[in-house]
Structure formats: C-alpha cells, structure tokens
Specification:
Blueprint (H helix, E strand, L loop, with lengths): L7 E7 L3 H6 L6 H13 L3 E8 L6 H13 L4 E6 L7 H8 L26 H16 L2 H10 L3 H15 L2
Parallel strand pairs: 1-2, 2-3
Helix pairs in contact: 3-5
Length: 171
Amino acid sequence: MKQAGCWQVLYGFESGDDRMLKLLKKGNTVAMNKRAVLLTKEAGLEVRGDFIVGTPGETRESLEKTLRFAIDMKLDYAHFNKFVPLPGTELYEILTREGHVFDFSKSTILDHKQIYYTIPGIKQKEFSGFLDRATRRFYLRPGYILKRLFSVRTLHQLKGQIDGFSAIIGL
C-alpha cells in the first residue's frame, strides 16, 4: 500500500475497552487493535483512529480506557466522536423502544455540545466535557506537538497544523 502512495490508514477502533467492543459487536479486541497499529506503523504508515464514545453501556472507566488507548498507542490522529443513535440502526431501535426520544432538528450531529443520548450515571455536561478533554489531552501533549511540527514538509502542511491547533485550543 505504501508503495502505491498510501500514507495513512484510518481505523474505526470505536473503543479502547474490550467490554465495549463486545457490546458494539465489533468482532475484534483491544489486543487485535494494538497489533493493527503496530503493524501499520511498522509498514511506515500513519495511523488515524476513530472512536465512538457514549454508547449504551459506556462508563467513566471505559471512556478513560479509550483515551488511554489512543495516547498509549501513539496514534498520529484520533477523533473522539459522540454516539448518535441514528434512525435505522439497531441501537436507535432499542433505545426508542426503551422510551428515548431523539430530536435531530436542534443542531448538526457533529456539534459536541448537542448530546443525543446521555449515559446513565453521567450528566450531559460531564460527557460533553469529556469529549473536549479527550481531544485536548490527545493533541496538546508536548511530545505530540513536537512530532507534528517536525513532520511538516510544506507551508500547506504548516497551515493545516496551525489551523488544527487553533481549533483545539478554541474548544
């Protein structure tokens, strides 16, 4: 893949907690995900990880495990996406049968401040804060910042890094 021009692989890890991966029916484990990261980096490719946090069954501990996985694996990029129970999905059907009502007219699903499903035992404000904190903890590590700066090869890349940094500190 690298010889063909691929420079980055995006993995939908979803969680850094085996219990959550099982609940989400991912069919993989944290150990399998770690191996995928190591093999991808060994091949000289960047690793981008996407995570869905706040799904039914999530706990403070599983949220922290996910953040630790992203940091410990030294992913090149990580995106912590809030769970959105989209119509037509199995989780949407389960949650609506349980009496949950979802209003998607208030904002876009990408808005971190608009939480559609609240994890039992975790207040909406606390969960929203986790999304911002996870992003900051991942991207604002001194070693990570230096790595990104030393990877810059063009003015366009530098602008992208500065824009990304500005967006994160503005959360």
